[in-house]
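Standup notes
- DV: blocked on the single-chain target, sequence here:
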Amino acid sequence: MGWEDLVCAACAGRVVEGRCATCRASREQFRGQRPALPAAPLLIAAALLLALLMVLAH
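- DV (later): unblocked, structure below
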């Protein structure tokens, strides 16, 4: 789920539409943030690294 899917508690509209001041403030706050890294590739990389370390330890 992305921020485009969020619904405003003040006006019940989609935040991305910016119907009210609360929506517009939230929209600006989200625009300033960097996108988060997806967790799945990081978990796969960590699992591969752990497997490699286990093989090298034996």
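- Follow-up: The longest helix spans residues 39-57.
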